[in-house]
């Protein structure tokens, strides 16, 4: 089977195609709220600190509430949880333009966005848990590749569209994001998925269920080892994500804001092109190489790519290396997710993925802040290169651990 045929075969299933379309539309709208809230915050306050909070309010709930979000998704049923979260997010985001009235406290629109982000902390693990339920086992990894590549592409397109929308319609851009959630919910209601009856929710039960997910990760040798390895090896990602725009502005744009913004957009697009290519190429490797070895090899080469990205002398080489990094990102990420899906019982998938997503977010937050502080004292290229070298070393060490490298 060719790479393209392997990817397209997943979309021939009406159920998966509906799911894929819903996710593409929903993810397209995600950057709109982030960019629109940041723009509105700066317009109303002129404060860089308050503006930076726009990023935190959209990301912190995943780090803190994600442990419980997965348990809620398991209790409600994964498709039901996704529909409910999309409908709630549509309503909450649609209220933001009204809440941005200068006579109202800015805490009100921020609170609405935080509430929407809490819904996302339920939605995200439910989404990862639902894929195995609507995909044949032999197509699971290929389906994950299609979803991941699409996510990355529509996020870039959504960010580009968000900038234009905010410039043209201002705060009304929030309504566009609300509409994407409503359309996603409508499409998800059309999915034919067998789900058990929803369980009653309570704080005690949700806490117990969340702890059951963490306990399952701890008791599973494959999952606990994989989780610890993934958290360590991916610590280069927040350094790469946070400092790449600084590298572009300082090295290639000579601190020119307009040139830097354009070049950073090209850099994001290059990484997205790599992710799409990786999604098409990955099916060639699946079935021929153990998934554990794909994770290790992808991370090792990704770390090496970051070292080369950090020291690339020309912008053209920089873009080419970002395409390679995008491909390798898919090569290690998709098999990693697939391993977790395959070793986790369906009833526990939501809470297991909720725990893993929260642990990943919690590990990234201090790295983002620490990396930003170091970038004012040390060359950005040194920090990105060191982060890539760290990932490479961790990946090479993992080759000696059979619970990671020998997973089929």
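Q: What amino acid sequence fits the structure above?
A:
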């Amino acid at each position: 089977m060719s790479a393209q045929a392997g990817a397209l075969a997943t979309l021939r299933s009406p159920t998966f195609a509906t799911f894929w379309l819903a996710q593409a539309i929903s993810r397209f709208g995600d950057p709109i709220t982030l960019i629109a809230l940041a723009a509105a915050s700066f317009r109303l306050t002129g404060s860089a600190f308050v503006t930076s909070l726009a990023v935190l309010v959209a990301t912190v709930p995943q780090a803190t509430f994600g442990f419980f979000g997965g348990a809620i998704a398991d209790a409600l049923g994964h498709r039901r949880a996704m529909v409910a979260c999309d409908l709630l997010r549509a309503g909450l985001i649609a209220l933001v333009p009204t809440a941005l009235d200068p006579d109202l406290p800015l805490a009100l629109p921020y609170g609405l966005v935080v509430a929407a982000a809490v819904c996302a902390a339920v939605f995200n693990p439910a989404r990862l848990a639902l894929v195995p339920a609507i995909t044949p086992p032999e197509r699971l990894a290929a389906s994950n590749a299609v979803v991941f590549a699409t996510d990355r592409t529509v996020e870039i397109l959504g960010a580009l569209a968000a900038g234009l929308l905010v410039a043209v319609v201002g705060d009304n851009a929030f309504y566009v994001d609300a509409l994407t959630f409503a359309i996603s919910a409508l499409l998800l209601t059309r999915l034919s998925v067998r789900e058990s009856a929803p369980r009653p929710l309570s704080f005690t039960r949700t806490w117990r269920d969340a702890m059951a997910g963490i306990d399952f990760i701890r008791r599973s040798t494959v999952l606990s080892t994989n989780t610890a390895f993934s958290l360590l090896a991916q610590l280069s990602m927040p350094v790469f994500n946070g400092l790449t725009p600084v590298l572009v502005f300082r090295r290639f744009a000579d601190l020119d804001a307009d040139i830097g913004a354009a070049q950073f957009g090209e850099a994001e697009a290059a990484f997205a092109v790599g992710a799409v290519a990786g999604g098409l190429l990955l099916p060639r490797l699946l079935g021929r190489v153990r998934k554990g070895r794909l994770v290790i090899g992808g991370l090792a080469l990704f770390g090496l790519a970051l070292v080369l990205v950090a020291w690339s002398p020309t912008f053209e080489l920089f873009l080419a290396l970002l395409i390679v990094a995008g491909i390798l990102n898919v090569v290690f990420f998709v098999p990693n997710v697939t391993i977790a899906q395959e070793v986790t019982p369906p009833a526990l998938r939501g809470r297991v993925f909720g725990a893993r997503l929260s642990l990943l977010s919690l590990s990234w937050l201090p790295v983002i802040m620490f990396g930003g502080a170091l970038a004012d004292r040390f060359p950005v290229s040194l920090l990105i290169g060191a982060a890539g070298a760290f990932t490479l070393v961790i990946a090479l060490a993992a080759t000696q651990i059979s619970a990671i490298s020998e997973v089929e």
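Q: And what stands out in the fold?
A: The first helix runs from residue 3 to 11.
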